[in-house]
Structure formats: structure tokens, C-alpha cells
Specification:
- The complex is a heterodimer.
- Chain A is an alpha+beta fold.
- Chain A folds into 3 domains: 93 residues, Winged helix-like DNA-binding domain superfamily/Winged helix DNA-binding domain (Arc Repressor Mutant, subunit A, Orthogonal Bundle), CATH 1.10.10; 77 residues, Ferrous iron transport protein A (FeoA) (SH3 type barrels, Roll); 75 residues, Ferrous iron transport protein A (FeoA) (SH3 type barrels, Roll), CATH 2.30.30.90.
- Chain B is 76% helix and 2% strand.
- By secondary structure, chain B is an all-alpha fold.
- In chain B, helix 5 packs antiparallel against helix 12 and helix 11 packs across helix 17.
- In chain B, strands 2-3 form a two-stranded antiparallel sheet.
- Classes of the chains: A alpha+beta, B mainly alpha.
- At the A-B interface, helix 10, strand 11 and strand 13 of A face helix 1, helix 2, helix 3, helix 6 and strand 1 of B.
- Strand 13 of chain A pairs antiparallel with strand 1 of chain B, so a sheet runs across the interface.
Chain lengths: 338, 462
């Protein structure tokens, strides 16, 4: 090859490596800063989490949670201290005011993303956490405000955890673990702890969900048995302790004859009592748009030859719903008039 | 009070709202609407209501529902194919007549042959061909489709078939977008806007191409008549040909479900969305509105996109067929280079090349193929009779029954045409999903034709 070809080749190579922004070097540097930022934010979240639990983080707990070596965790602690995000007292790590502000921002991003992924993107609940964890580092506070407004200012994430406001305020009450709830008194599930993921997946697989009304039937060291009046749920106490419940709000109790629309017999008119709390976002909006509001009269009119979906007469229109959707609408059968 | 105070107060009050306040707002809106309606609308007896119910029972009953559905689909497709033939011929006569006249003018003016060829045998011929074979079927199919939609029949089809789509993790309204695909896959992709959950909409978009569109029906019918039904006599011939085409369509629908299932289990995993489907009362159709929406919104919209891609394709086809390369032209050289790969799939190099360069519209695949088989310098209609086609393809170019069958399968499963790919990109605003749509269809086509070819050779059929 001629020298000119060589020079051109070298120049092209140099460009590929050193080009600002698009060059390989710039890309690596950009990737590293993003990684570092994510690590700092994950560390802040860990500290906040510990503070909410009433204990304190240490370099060891940090290394364990983030999967770092002890030396790397120490370097992270030093750099965060230098940035004024944390203070060390003995072996304990504390958030500074600035650190707490940032930690709450990340927490808010995480929980808003979970809400979005569950309600609008209709992602399975057990996958929401991981995806939200990936996305929580990418939005500015202003973008979060937009997301929050678009979601209709939700106060809880899909697991029932409170979402901090922009100012960092949020409700701290989490309900009582069902393992400490008096037997036989009615309760509503207000929170399903999503960590550890394995226990959470078991709860979802069993069919438990937020807003469900349950009673504790039996509680022994071997097992906890819950009932929602229809199904019984047998759980190991370690799993059941991830369910948090609160007393039923008196005015929101369903009337005794209430049943899901899916179980209403053909040709039996009924009045909608309420839409299930678990229905949020896209699905709830669709229901309301179609006139499936509390107080509306529904009448199952047309059945598919396989029983599903079924078409209901609502406000003069004929609307087809699948069984899963119809199970989320609570109705009270009316006296037969037809 | 300052603006900030107001905002702070609002923030405070918002926290005190019960979670169902949105329900209450909608409820009060409905109450108000009902109050107004009661005052303003007078209802006289409700006779149409009973009639509606009787029709509904007929259409959604297991005994009559499915046959009615299939019959109507068959009638619409048959009318389209038959009716379009007549119009296409007339339109082609006019358009190619204009082309020939202009060409003669160019020749008279002593312009170099390659300018005349490029403009009139390349670009213009591509355009004229696409317009004359694409416009008439769409102008018949879309109004018929819109008529069924307007009557209220199509939503019932979605209602009937939802259980199947539910099993595949898809939305019942995909029955509608799939049917629309029979008219044109690009229009089918646009029509997925009626599905409001993004996940199910993507499934509908990515699988729409598995139903053959108007542009592919003539190819399927030609192959079924000339090759599959060749050994039969008289009326049995048409019966066998029709059965073959129906079989191919059913295979396509089968692949739609299979691919929907695969997608909803893998890259498009997620919860079943809110399935809500309104079944409107049966209405007398508004003919003018039907003509307007079907011709302007659908037909011209698709045709315009097709024209945008047909002109450059016409140019490329002409260049490949006329650029000398070795002892022959570039097209023949590439085709012979592709031949081993084509043979592996039970096809040949010419077919593969035709599918690559005729990507803008399925309608010009066969003319491009014929051009290469006949060694012509521009797209041509094949020989007029079935006998002549058989002589050309079987006698001179080594086709077998396997080639015909695999070409049918390939025509059914291969990548979307350029117009549809462009539409998928515009609808999803994502290069990624447009690419995925090509990869999964082309992958399926390669896999299926490879398997049938290998099986046929293993069994000694071909």
C-alpha cells in the first residue's frame, strides 16, 4: 500500500477513536459516568431504605446490596462523602440533606415508573420492579413532574408503597403485617412487599392483590390461612409477612350481595357498585369512557359460543367484555323485572 | 394569595381526595348527559331493538355464525378478484397506451436509447403496472369492507373470534385488522389503530402480513390453476384451484395465530389488556360516507405510498435487466449467483431476485420474474395460456410442482412489501419494529420453504 493510503487509514482510525461525542473513547467515558451515577443513586436508595427501616447502612451492607467488593464500596463511600451526599459516623452511613433530596428523587422516579409500567404498558406485576430499576436513573425532576401529572398524581405504586411528592413528602404508614393482624377481623390488603422477589411472585401466583378484602382464618408457626370469602390462601408465615393490611374503611365495604360481573347469570340485570381498586390506568379509563360507572345498570345480553367474551347492555349500548375484565367490576343484582 | 400558595394548597387537597374521585367525576358527567338527553330526545317504541337482538343471535350462534362469516369473506374476496380483472385490463390498456405513445415520441426525437428505456420502460412502466393492478382491487375491496363495518357486522366477527385471539395472547379486534389485510397489508397495519393497548397492537401489526393481500391473490390463483390443478379436467380444475387457494389462506391464518402466540410469549410478553368492544346497533349504511372513507382514506392513501416506492423500483428493475454483465445482463448474473440458495428453498435464483427487486409491491413480482425468464428488457406479462406458461417454466427453466408449491408458500409468508414496511415504520415510529416485522416473516418463509423442499427431496417427490 502507498504511504498515502496508510495515512488515510490512520486518520480514519484516529477519528473513530477520538471523535468527540461519537468517538469510542467518548462513548466509553460517557458509559462510565452513567454507570457511576447509577451506582451513587443505588447507594443513596439503600441508605434511605435503611433509614426508613429505622436502622443504618454501613459500608458492608452497601457492598452487599450493590454487589461490590469491600474496597470498591469504600471508594464509593469516600467519593459520595466528598460530594456532600453522605456523612460517616463510626461505621454508620447517614444521608445529608442534599443526599436525602436526591435519594427521594430516585425513589419517586422508581415508583412512578412502576405505576406507568403496570397501568399503561400493562407489564406483568412481577416484572415491573426490574424494568423500573433500569429506568429510574434517566429522568430529570421536571420530566418526573410530567410523568406524575400524566398518570394522574398517583399516591401509591402498584405494590402499595407510597410515592414521594416533588417536595419529598409522603405517607409513611404501611399497614400492619398480616402475621400480626387479629384473627377473624376483616382487613384490606394495602401493600404487597415486592422484595424479596421470590416471595412476591408467590403472592401474585396465589392470586392475592392490592385492595382485596381478607380475613385471617388460621395462624400457626407453620402456616397462615387467609380467606377472601371465596378462596382460601395457604401461605408460609415468611411469605405471609410480606402482606400488609389495614382496617376496612367503613363506607367502602361492598354490600353483601355484591358479586363480580363475570359471575352474574345471563339475563339478570344488576347495578354496578364499584370498579375494583386493582383496576387502574388504561383499563379503568376505558371502563369509565364506556359508561361502566358506579350506579349504571348492566344486563348480560349476548354470549359468545364459548362463553367468553360476553356482551352487556349498558346505557343503551352493547359492550363486550372478557371474563377477566368483567371480574373486576362489582355489581349488585337487581330484582327481576323483565 | 400567590400562585405558589395556590399550587401548594392544591397539592395538599389532592392528597385528601379519595381514590375514586375520578369515578365520581365521570359519573356526574354521565348523570348530566342523561338529564339533557331525557329533555331533548324523544324515544318512540323500540322496535329495531328486537330486530337487532334477533340478528345478533343469528350472527353469534355457533351453528350459523361461522358459516355466515366465512361466506361473506369469500364473497368479498371473489368479487374483488373477479371485478378487478376487468377494470385492471381497461386501466392497463389506457396507461400502457400512453406509455407507448410517449415512447414513440422519444424515439422520433432521436434521444439515446437508454434515456427512452429508463424513463418509459423503467420508471413509467413500474408506475403504470402498480397503478393498474393495485387500484381496481382496492377500489372494490375497501368499499365492501367499509360497508360491512358500517352495517355493524365486523364488530360481531371480532366478538365471535375473540376466544381464539385470546388464546394467542392477542386482541379480538385483530380479527378486523387481519381481514383488512386481505385487501392490503399496509391498510391492515394502519387499521390496527383501533386496538388501544400498545402490546396487542404491535402483535397485530407484526402478524398482519401473514394474510395474503390483493396483490398476492393473482399469483396464488395463477400458480394454483396452472400447476396444482394442471392434471385435472373440466370443472374439477377450478374446484381444485379454489381449494388450493383457500388452503393457502388458511395456512396464512394459522401462521397469524402461531406467530401471535410466539410473540406474546416472548418479546411482547405482558398482561392481556382491557378487552372492551362496542357492538353498535345495526344501521342503514351511509353510501356517500363509505365511498369517501374507503376511497380517499384507504385506497388513495395506500396507492400514493405504493407509487412512491414503485417508481424507483421500476428504475432499478430496468437497470438490472439492461446493464450488460459478462455475456448476459446484470439481472441474469445475480440470479445465477442466487441459484444455489434458491434451490435449497425449492425455488430458484430468478424468483429470489424478483422478490428482492420487486419489493415495493407484490403485484410486480410475477412480471419481473417473467421478464427474466423470457430475457426481456422490461417487465412483461407472461405467456397467455396455461399451456405456454407450463412449457416456459417447466420445459425451459426446470420448474417442478415443488417450485410452484414453495413459491405459493413463499408468496404467503415472505417479508412485507415496501409500502407495508414504510407503513409499519410510520405507525410504530421505530426502525426496530419495522426490522422485526421483516425478520420474522422472512425467517418464517425461509424456514418453511426449506423444510418442505428438504422433505419433498427426502421422500423422493421432487
Amino acid at each position: 500500500m502507498s504511504p498515502i493510503t496508510w495515512i488515510a487509514l490512520l486518520a480514519a482510525l484516529a477519528l473513530i477513536v477520538f471523535l468527540p461525542r461519537a468517538g469510542l473513547l467518548a462513548q466509553v467515558r460517557h458509559y462510565r459516568t452513567v454507570r457511576q451515577r447509577e451506582q451513587v443513586e443505588d447507594a443513596l436508595k439503600h441508605l434511605l431504605d435503611r433509614e426508613h427501616q429505622g436502622s443504618h447502612a454501613s459500608p458492608e451492607s452497601l457492598a452487599g446490596t450493590l454487589g461490590l467488593s469491600r474496597a470498591a464500596a469504600m471508594r464509593l463511600v469516600e467519593s459520595m462523602e466528598a460530594q456532600g451526599l453522605i456523612e460517616t459516623r463510626g461505621n454508620q452511613l447517614h444521608l445529608t440533606a442534599e443526599g436525602e433530596r436526591w435519594a427521594l428523587h430516585v425513589l419517586r422516579a422508581h415508583r412512578l415508573w412502576e405505576r406507568y409500567l403496570a397501568d399503561e404498558a400493562r407489564m406483568p406485576l412481577e416484572k415491573v420492579h426490574t424494568e423500573a430499576h433500569r429506568r429510574e436513573h434517566r429522568l430529570t425532576a421536571a420530566e418526573l413532574d410530567e410523568l406524575e401529572a400524566a398518570l394522574g398524581h398517583p399516591t401509591r405504586d402498584p405494590h402499595g408503597d407510597p410515592i414521594p411528592t416533588r417536595e419529598g413528602n409522603f405517607a409513611r404508614e404501611m399497614g400492619t403485617p398480616v402475621t400480626a393482624w387479629p384473627a377473624d377481623s376483616p382487613a384490606r390488603i394495602v401493600h404487597l412487599e415486592d422484595e424479596p422477589a421470590l416471595a412476591y411472585e408467590q403472592l401474585l401466583a396465589a392470586g392475592l392483590r392490592l385492595g382485596q378484602d381478607v380475613r385471617v382464618l388460621e395462624r400457626t408457626p407453620q402456616r397462615v390461612v387467609l380467606s377472601d370469602g371465596e378462596n382460601e390462601y395457604r401461605l408460609a408465615p415468611a411469605v405471609a409477612s410480606n402482606i400488609y393490611v389495614a382496617p376496612l374503611p367503613e363506607h367502602q365495604r361492598l354490600p353483601d350481595q355484591a358479586l363480580p360481573l363475570a359471575e352474574l347469570p345471563n339475563g339478570q340485570a344488576a347495578e354496578i357498585v364499584k370498579l375494583d381498586d386493582a383496576v387502574q390506568g388504561l383499563t379503568r379509563r376505558r371502563f369509565l369512557d364506556l359508561g361502566l360507572t358506579p350506579g349504571a345498570i348492566v344486563y348480560p345480553e349476548l354470549q359468545n359460543f364459548f362463553g367468553d367474551p360476553r356482551a352487556y347492555r349498558v346505557r343503551g349500548a352493547l359492550i363486550a367484555l372478557r371474563k377477566e375484565q368483567a371480574a373486576q367490576i362489582w355489581v349488585r343484582p337487581l330484582e327481576p323485572t323483565r | 394569595m400567590q400562585a405558589n400558595d395556590v399550587l401548594a394548597k392544591a397539592e395538599l387537597l389532592r392528597r385528601q381526595l379519595s381514590s375514586s374521585f375520578r369515578d365520581e367525576i365521570v359519573k356526574s358527567l354521565y348523570a348530566e348527559a342523561e338529564r339533557i338527553a331525557r329533555r331533548a330526545v324523544k324515544v318512540h317504541g323500540d322496535r329495531t331493538y328486537d330486530l337487532d337482538q334477533q340478528i345478533d343471535r343469528l350472527i353469534t350462534s355457533p351453528l350459523t355464525g361461522l358459516p355466515i362469516m366465512l361466506l361473506l369473506l369469500a364473497v368479498v374476496i371473489w368479487t374483488t378478484v373477479e371485478g378487478a380483472n376487468l377494470v385492471s385490463e381497461a386501466l392497463a390498456a389506457v396507461l400502457f397506451g400512453i406509455g407507448d405513445a410517449m415512447r414513440a415520441l422519444f424515439v422520433q426525437a432521436n434521444l439515446p436509447w437508454w434515456i427512452t428505456g429508463f424513463v418509459w420502460d423503467g420508471v413509467y412502466r413500474g408506475l403504470a403496472w402498480v397503478v393498474s393492478v393495485m387500484f381496481p382491487p382496492m377500489a372494490i375491496f375497501f368499499p365492501a369492507f367499509t360497508l360491512l363495518e358500517d352495517l355493524g357486522f365486523l364488530p360481531r366477527v371480532a366478538f365471535n373470534l375473540d376466544w381464539l385471539f385470546k388464546k394467542a395472547g392477542a386482541h379480538g379486534k385483530q380479527a378486523l385488522t387481519m381481514t383488512m389485510g386481505f385487501g392490503c397489508n399496509a391498510a391492515g397495519v394502519v387499521s390496527t389503530r383501533i386496538i388501544d393497548s400498545p402490546r396487542e397492537r404491535l402483535i397485530a401489526i407484526l402478524t398482519n402480513n401473514f394474510v395474503p393481500c390483493n396483490g398476492r391473490f393473482p399469483t396464488l390463483i395463477m400458480l394454483a390453476t396452472v400447476f396444482v390443478a394442471a392434471g385435472f379436467q373440466g370443472w374439477v380444475t377450478s374446484l381444485i384451484a379454489a381449494a388450493t387457494v383457500v388452503g393457502v389462506v388458511l395456512i396464512g391464518i394459522g401462521f397469524t395465530f402461531l406467530m401471535s402466540l410466539l410473540l406474546s410469549r416472548t418479546i411482547l410478553k405482558g398482561e392481556a389488556s382491557a378487552f372492551t368492544l362496542e357492538l353498535p346497533p345495526y344501521r342503514r349504511p351511509d353510501i356517500l360516507r363509505i365511498l369517501y372513507t374507503s376511497l380517499i382514506d384507504r385506497t388513495l392513501f395506500v396507492l400514493w405510498r405504493a407509487i412512491q416506492t414503485a417508481a424507483p423500483a421500476g428504475a432499478v428493475i430496468w437497470i438490472l435487466a439492461n446493464l450488460p454483465f459478462g455475456s448476459s445482463n446484470l439481472a441474469a448474473a445475480i440470479a445465477s449467483w442466487l441459484d444455489p440458495f434458491g434451490h435449497l428453498l425449492g425455488l430458484d435464483g430468478v424468483i429470489l431476485l424478483a422478490y428482492v427487486i420487486a419489493i415495493p409491491a407484490n403485484e410486480i413480482v410475477v412480471p419481473t420474474m417473467m421478464m427474466m425468464y423470457l430475457g426481456a428488457g422490461m417487465m412483461v406479462e407472461g405467456p397467455g395460456t396455461a399451456e405456454a406458461i407450463r412449457t416456459l417454466l417447466i420445459g425451459q427453466h426446470g420448474w417442478t410442482l415443488l417450485t410452484a408449491v414453495n413459491l405459493m408458500l413463499f408468496a404467503l409468508l415472505h417479508n412485507p412489501c415496501g409500502t407495508t414496511i414504510l407503513t409499519i415504520y410510520k405507525e410504530t415510529k421505530s426502525v426496530k419494529w419495522a426490522t422485526v416485522s421483516v425478520v420474522i416473516t422472512l425467517g418464517t418463509a425461509f424456514l418453511v420453504t426449506f423444510l418442505t423442499a428438504s422433505l419433498a427431496r427426502l421422500m423422493g417427490w421432487a
